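FAQ: What does the model actually see?

It sees only this:
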Amino acid sequence: MNPVIANMLERRSVRVYKEEQIKDADLKTVLECGLYAPTGGNLQYSRFLVIQNPLLMEELNQVIRKELASREIVEGAYINKGIIRARKEGYHFIYHAPTLISAVSLRSHGNSMADCANALENMQLAATALGLGACWSNQPHWLTGVPEVRSIFERLGLREEEDIFGSIAVGYPGYIAKKAAVRKEGRIVLDMPRSLSE
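And it is asked to produce this:
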């Protein structure tokens, strides 16, 4: 199988990490892959803020935990999973991964979420290709308007006109990821129905 295709099919979200920090060369490669992701109109508004300092990471974790744990559960809301996790002992929003990469872009730009999601997916695939683990993190995006969260990211260069549209944890996997779950049926619709199983 083509190695690029195999990487896409075999990539798994990693939620247990070793303490060891990733190599600078690997971080550079992962970020470069993010820079080469497609952006609407090739405007390239998306930027990447990286946290590796353990003290800053812990500060951010405590702010996120406090904010999420204080929120009310709203029936059917996806954020509920994050709220419930934040109320448990030992909470760490990116599972103690040593690196956080957050994709930021202009709040007013209609394609910012798509641009950032494209970049973060590129970076997750690059991480897997390099033997690293990665996992999407919603928490900084959910809390992009919270002053305490913004204050931390402003130290890294977050601009007043930008929001956080997505983040990924990156590190060395602390376990061998399981094989992907069977894909749900009925998610592909062809205009001329035929079998694609061959």
